[in-house]
Amino acid sequence: MQKIIQDIESRYSVSEKEIRRNNLCFLTIPKNQAISLVTYLRDYQGYSAFTLLTAVDWIEEGHFQLTYLLNNPTNYTEIGVRTMIERDHATMESAHHLWESMQTYQRELKEMFGIDFPGSPRVDEDFILEGWTDIPPYRRDFDTKKYAEETYFPRPGRETNDPAEYMKSKLFPND
Amino acid sequence: MSLKDILTPFTAWKRVARTPVTVRDPFNDRPGADRYRGFHKNDVDTCIGCGTCESICENEAIDLVPFKDPVSGDSGLRPRIDYGRCCWCALCVDVCTTNSLTLSNEYTWVATDPEEYRYTPGVDKKSWDENEKGWKKPEGNYEFYDLNRVAMHHLHPEERSDSFIEMVTGYSKEQAMTEADRCVECGICIATCPAHMGIPEYIKAVRNDNMEEGMRVLYETNPLPEICGRICTHKCETVCSIGHKGDPLSIRWLKRYIADQIPSDKYKEILNTNNLEVNDKKVAIIGSGPSGLSAAHYLRLMGYQVTIFEQYAEAGGMMRYGIPEYRLPYDQLDKDINYILSLGVEIKYNTRIGDKITLADLGKKYDAVFAGTGLHLGRGTGIPGSDNEHVYYSTDLLRKITAGEKIEVADSVVVIGGGNVAMDITRSLARLQMKKYGRINIIATSLENEENMPADREEVVEAREEGAIIHPGWAPQSIEIENGVPIGLHVVKCNSLFDETGRFNPQCSMDIKEYWPGKMVVQSIGQGMDMTYLSDEFKENITFGPRGRVQTNEYFQTGVGWFFMGGDIIEGPDVIHGIANGHKAAVGIDRYIQDKLNSKQ
User: Fold this and answer.
1) Cβ separation of B70 and A171 shorter than 8 Å?
2) Which H or E run includes B539?
3) What's the pLDDT at B7?
4) I need a surface site. Which of B48, B231, B306, B488 has the fewest CB within 10 A?
């Protein structure tokens, strides 16, 4: 693991590295080098299996974190390539040409986070949220509770009691 | 399509003769994993209805519904789960303050009526109620709140045993905020506090570092926070939901923390009492103890002209003349009292009602009178030798210590009594011994055994730390007198205090005897009330209940309409009941005066 990290560091500007286990590490590199590194790992380092692509909304810092998780089936190691992209008008270079399944992940991120991958096949089509009109629901500024209250009707018969208020009403109503 | 694509499905046929790897009979016996998160179970006898499960539920799947009548420490409510919303995340189980809520590993349930999927675990019987497997909060793994309270620093016994300086140092800001962070805001404690203080609210103010808000919450129900923050009997802490698995919140110390942060000159601004209105109605208050001060405070806020009549030279009643300085320093006592007086409450010191001014005089001059005259008279044991002039009452000695009068403490002392007052006098006399003789030789003894001593546990522990000897479970028989002064106390072993019917009837082994030398003997077995100010004309209109206590209505009004009574003479004895009584009586007096005004119109 150390060896390959050193090799990557000699080729790419790794700003952060996190070695979780002796077979799993995460490397953060600039947006414009990410797809290049993913390609390099696939073609030259044996990381031929694409496990997943996922995003985290760091709303306070104003960016999304993308993670490309790659697996090397011969030595059973995994590398997560992380990159930060601007949250406003979030766009990332598409990697659908590297693995076919990549387009599904990119389509999901478009729908759930609003991250665009221009050129990725069917990226603008509805994925699972058919007819969604609100902001993408995995963005942290999406208010799930408010949406649920506005969209769905409450179940009739629900009622609750606050313990302190209930005890007051029963034990010392006049105090 | 290639040839391979066409042939591939047929390759499955080569497995036809092999043993299947799947479960053979999928319709029977396929239990969830041992720690599967299935349907809810609740031990309703352990559950206290604190509602933390409801608060933490992200899906709002939980309602609290009535199960039984609430009692101190149990809201009587129980959680009902709506499986239309539950996602079985088990946060409700992990946050549960009593560990009563768990998940079984049952996960199949078929019903035709959707309403059935909303049920109260433990109340609505289910087939998985006895299921041992499933999800329980793992012990010692993680906690959503710290189970251990932030320890309060006390002066070491060596530092405090010869001095009356305050022994509890108080929380720092960091300590207070850490402690406040343990509160789950269930509010179970409110009903148990006699004054029903807004405890979760003021703890929240500590957490938010908003002392001014905290102060306003305190004064809504308690105008003596510096005092209560030090010496309250903190019954609230006995029911704290966090106390079921860990240490209860240090509610008392957090209250003290808030009051300690606000300097006296900021009180009026924060509490918005700079310009209180004054109406033309007058109320007299007898006694400046907690109930009298509390009544005065709330009456003054309502605009009444309030005058307190105090028999001693300073205000505070038992808080000043009964509680030793090391537990409640005089400057903190004065901070609370002076604020109340600064609102325009008049106080006449050294004025005992019944001497020159009678209760009838007050009734004529004032629109209403409140008496919170307390329990000031020492009770005697009546044993042979107890009438000796060197056998004392704890109340008298404590009062003299406060007043600065010299006490000829003997080099050996025996205290009879095992309550908080007995511990107060024991520890005070021990300090005086240390100052005078450089060593402590004091024994306190109680009828009750160690477990049943009426004193707070910490009082007994601290007294021992300071060098006093506590001998619980002995009955005093006689005081040995030699040359007109006491020289010791004879006791026998006391086995039990109450008979089968619950009547006070001590049983002793007369052959197990002890003799403890002591040149000074102090009796501290309870206090009585001095009601001599109630002349016969009043007694006719007042109902007396058990143990000579006056019967009042819920607003502490006696049979004499304008005369209200509260504090230790009615309820307690402790400071917080006095405060609660005074507040309620103030409301009652206001109603009484307003009703009278309305009936005249």
Assistant:
1) yes
2) helix B536-539
3) 81
4) B488
d(CA B492, CA B452): 18
For chain B, the domains span 31-144, 157-270, 279-376+529-600, 379-526
The residues on B that touch A, with CB distances below 8 Å, are: 49-51, 54, 60, 62-66, 69-70, 75-77, 82, 84-85, 115, 118, 186-188, 190-191, 196, 200, 554, 580, 584
pLDDT above 90 for B11: no
Nearest CA in chain B to A175: B584
Using pLDDT thresholds of 50, 70 and 90, give the confidence band for residue B26: low
Q: Which residue of B has its CA nearest to A172?
A: B191
- pLDDT at position B511: 93
Closest CA–CA distance from residue B76 to any residue of chain A (Å): 8
Give me the pLDDT at residue B426, please.
96
The model's pLDDT over B544-564, given as tens digits with 9 standing for 90+, comes to 887 778 899 999 999 999 999
The pLDDT value given to residue A112? 97
DSSP strand pairing (B377-378 vs B527-528): antiparallel
Q: What mean pLDDT is predicted for residues B313-335?
A: 95
Q: Do domains B31-144 and B157-270 have the same CATH topology?
A: no
Stretches where chain A sits below pLDDT 70 are none
Name the nearest CA neighbour of B89 among B134, B57, B62.
B57
- Tell me the residue ranges of DSSP E strands in B499-571: 504-517, 520-523, 527-528, 563-565
User: What would the mean pLDDT of B136-162 be, rounded to a whole number?
Assistant: 90
Q: How far is B21 from chain A (nearest CA, A)?
A: 25
For B379-526, CATH number out of 3.40.50.300, 3.50.50.60, 3.30.700.30, 3.20.20.70 equals 3.50.50.60
CA A123/CA A109 separation, integer angstroms: 9
The verdict on a CB contact (< 8 Å) between A157 and B118 is yes
- Whether residue B77 and residue A159 make contact (CB cut-off 8 A), yes or no, is no
Quote the minimal CA–CA distance from A164 to chain B in Å.
5
Which residue does chain B place closest to A148, by CA atoms?
Answer: B59
Q: What is the DSSP string of B186-250?
A: --HHHHHSTT---HHHHHHHHHTT-HHHHHHHHHHH-S-HHHHHHH---THHHH-GGGGTSPPP-
Q: Which CATH architecture has domain B279-376+529-600?
A: 3-Layer(bba) Sandwich (3.50)
The whole-model pTM stands at: 0.83
Task: Examine the pLDDT at B267 and tell me if it is beyond 70.
Answer: yes
